[in-house]
Structures are given as structure tokens and as C-alpha cells.
């Protein structure tokens, strides 16, 4: 009996679907079905009761699957202990990233990460939409905002201030705003997701809150396109300071109304479950020894923000308190 077949059987038991298990493991449905049949033939018993909609465990499956899971867990833990001793980071990293953050910041960091850990392979999924970990075969998501699904597990990497910005070319043709009440006279560039346009911009100063309803001639569900419009001088944008950091460093955009703080967000590293951090049996993804990837991203962000927003006091005043991940 092959270990790979047992891992497929456990995934089928987890998802109650051969098709879903095959998708999660990035293989053909016929391959997963054949693996299940091989295991059942060796055991001489059916592990699942097939219905038209989904599978359920048979009485034999209810006895066998938990024992199989425990056995693979012990084997996997032994293998992991060996890799920990040898300080090995390997496996396939399947990560989803938001468009702007992923294309312009994180992918270069991942290139450097892979150079330092050559046994890692990468599959990236770039989207601003919410991800389905099982449908999209993703192990890790780097996202703005805490996970809304109680079944997901994650930890905050840092707070990220929002930033009102415009290009020098736009400001040459338009009066530079100095107060939130000046903003409606300007052209807003908006992020839109699930038919909701984010055209109400929020700012605060000295305990006073401002909500400004903006108008504009451009909106997109791609955050990177909103950034490009801003750089091209098409209007004002409120963006994450991380997304705009390279353009700020190069002088392509400038921050506006720094005394008024735009709404901030949080950067999270999200997993499909708490067990994902410890590589459960049947999981073929990357072994994140002591959350090494999280440390890598955290340190990269810290260096970037220090460069883009010097002096460092600016970062502290705007709430970007970078936290190391528990080791």
C-alpha cells in the first residue's frame, strides 16, 4: 500500500468528495478515484458509501480512517523532526496574494526567499477576491484585513496605514487639497469589489472623524490598476502605504494632507486551519519551519517602510507597529 494512496484517501474523507480531493491535491479525478480503489481492494472493504451528491464514511471507514490518520501523523512527525534537525525548508508553496501587494512587493521577496531555500517550489494565485482554500488549492493567503471565516486561522503581521496621494503631474493642474472638505472638488480613483465601490473616504485628526463622499470617473476591482491611474495623474487615491511605497520612494506620487490620517488596515497571513502550520498528514505544501516565511515577509516590510517613510517616527505615529511572529 502506497503512502500517496493513503494521503489521497484521507483528503477524500476530509472533503467527502473525490473530485474536491483531486482538485485540492492538483491531480485528475480519475487518479484520485484509482488510488481509493487500490486501498479498498487491499483492505477488502469499502471505506465510503457513494451517493449521488457526496460520499460518507462506511462503518469500515469510520474504524479505519482515524487509525490511518494517526499512523501517517506519526510518520510525518518523525520525518519533520529530522528536517527540523537539519534545518530544511522544502516543498511546494501555494500562496494567494492581492494584485497590488503581490505583483509589486511580495513576488520579488518570494524570489529572494526561494534563492535562500532552493528546495521550495512556488505556485502563486494573484487576485483581490476572497479565496476558497480547497477549491483554489491554496495553502497560504497574504491579505489585508483579518479573516472573516471562523474556520480559518491566521496572525497579523503588521498594521498598515492608509495614504492619500497623487502624482506631481495631477497637482500641477489642480489645487493641492489641505483639508478633507477640499476633496469633493477632485477626481477620485476607486477600488471596487463585488459591485461595491469604495468611494467614501475616512480621515481623522485630533479625535475628529471625517467621512467624505467622493466622485470620480474611474473604478476597478484590481488594486494595481488604481495605483497605476494615480501614478499616471488621473486623480487622487487612498491606498495602503505598502502598495504606494515604491512610487513614494521614486517620487512618482506624493502624500497629501499628512496631518489627517486615512483609515488603516492590517496585513494578515492566513491558513486554512491551525493544523496547516504543523503540516498534517497528506499535506504536500511547504514546511514552514518556525514560520520562516512570515519572518521573511515581516522583515522585508520593516525595511521597506523604514526607507519609504523616514524618519521612523512617521511610521510609529501612523500606527505601523511591526510584530515578530511567535517562534
What's the CATH H-level superfamily name of the largest domain?
Periplasmic binding protein-like II
Low-confidence region ranges: 278-285, 311-327
User: Number of DSSP strands?
Assistant: 14
Main sheet: strands, sense, barrel: 9 strands, mixed
User: Considering DSSP H and I runs of 4 or more, what fraction of the residues is helical?
Assistant: 25-40%
Whole-number count of domains: 3
Features:
327 residues, alpha+beta, Arc Repressor Mutant, subunit A, D-Maltodextrin-Binding Protein, domain 2, 3 domains, 9-stranded mixed sheet, 10 helices, 14 strands, 39% helix, 24% strand, disordered C terminus
Helix-strand layout with pairing:
Layout: H1 3-15, H2 18-24, H3 29-43, E1 48-50, E2 55-57, H4 59-86, E3 91-97, H5 99-116, E4 120-126, E5 140-144, E6 153-166, H6 168-173, E7 189-193, E8 196-197, E9 200-205, E10 208-213, E11 218-220, H7 223-231, E12 237-240, H8 241-250, E13 254-255, E14 261-271, H9 292-308, H10 312-317
Parallel strand pairs: 3-4, 3-5, 7-11
Antiparallel strand pairs: 1-2, 5-14, 6-12, 6-13, 6-14, 7-8, 9-10, 9-14
Helix pairs in contact: 1-2, 1-3, 1-4, 2-3, 5-7, 8-9
Would you write up a description of this structure?
- By secondary structure, the protein is α+β, with helices and mostly antiparallel strands.
- The protein is 39% helix and 24% strand.
- The protein has 10 helices and 14 strands.
- The strands form 3 sheets. Strands 3, 4, 5, 6, 9, 10, 12, 13 and 14 form a 9-stranded mixed β-sheet that branches.
- The radius of gyration is 24 Å and the shape is elongated.
- The two termini are 37 Å apart.
- 32% of the residues are buried.
Amino acid at each position: 500500500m502506497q503512502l500517496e494512496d493513503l494521503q489521497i484517501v484521507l483528503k477524500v474523507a476530509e472533503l467527502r468528495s473525490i473530485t474536491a480531493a483531486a482538485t485540492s491535491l492538483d491531480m485528475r479525478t480519475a487518479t484520485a478515484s484509482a488510488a481509493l480503489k487500490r486501498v479498498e481492494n487491499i483492505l477488502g472493504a469499502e471505506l465510503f458509501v457513494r451517493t449521488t451528491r457526496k460520499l460518507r464514511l462506511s462503518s469500515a471507514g469510520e474504524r479505519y480512517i482515524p487509525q490511518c490518520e494517526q499512523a501517517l501523523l506519526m510518520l510525518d512527525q518523525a520525518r519533520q523532526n529530522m528536517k527540523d534537525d537539519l534545518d530544511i525548508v522544502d516543498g511546494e508553496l501555494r500562496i494567494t496574494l492581492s494584485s497590488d501587494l503581490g505583483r509589486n512587493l511580495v513576488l520579488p521577496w518570494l524570489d529572494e526567499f526561494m534563492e535562500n531555500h532552493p528546495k521550495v517550489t512556488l505556485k502563486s494565485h494573484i487576485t483581490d477576491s476572497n479565496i476558497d482554500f480547497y477549491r483554489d488549492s491554496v495553502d497560504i493567503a497574504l491579505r489585508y484585513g483579518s479573516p472573516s471565516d471562523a474556520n480559518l486561522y491566521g496572525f497579523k503581521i503588521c498594521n498598515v496605514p492608509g495614504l492619500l496621494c497623487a502624482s506631481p503631474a495631477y497637482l500641477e493642474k489642480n489645487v493641492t487639497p489641505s483639508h478633507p472638505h477640499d476633496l469633493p472638488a477632485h477626481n477620485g480613483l476607486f477600488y471596487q469589489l463585488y459591485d461595491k465601490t469604495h468611494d467614501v473616504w475616512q480621515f481623522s485628526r485630533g479625535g475628529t472623524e471625517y467621512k467624505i463622499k467622493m466622485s470620480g470617473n474611474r473604478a476597478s476591482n484590481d488594486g494595481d490598476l488604481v495605483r497605476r491611474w494615480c501614478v499616471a495623474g488621473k486623480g487622487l487615491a487612498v491606498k495602503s502605504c505598502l502598495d504606494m511605497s515604491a512610487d513614494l520612494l521614486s517620487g512618482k506620487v506624493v502624500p497629501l494632507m499628512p496631518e489627517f490620517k486615512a483609515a488603516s488596515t492590517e496585513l494578515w497571513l492566513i491558513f486554512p486551519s491551525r493544523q496547516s502550520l504543523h503540516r498534517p498528514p497528506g499535506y504536500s505544501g511547504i514546511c514552514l519551519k518556525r514560520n520562516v516565511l512570515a519572518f521573511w515577509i515581516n522583515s522585508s516590510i520593516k525595511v521597506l517602510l523604514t526607507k519609504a517613510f523616514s524618519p521612523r517616527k512617521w511610521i510609529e505615529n501612523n500606527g505601523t507597529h511591526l510584530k515578530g511572529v511567535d517562534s
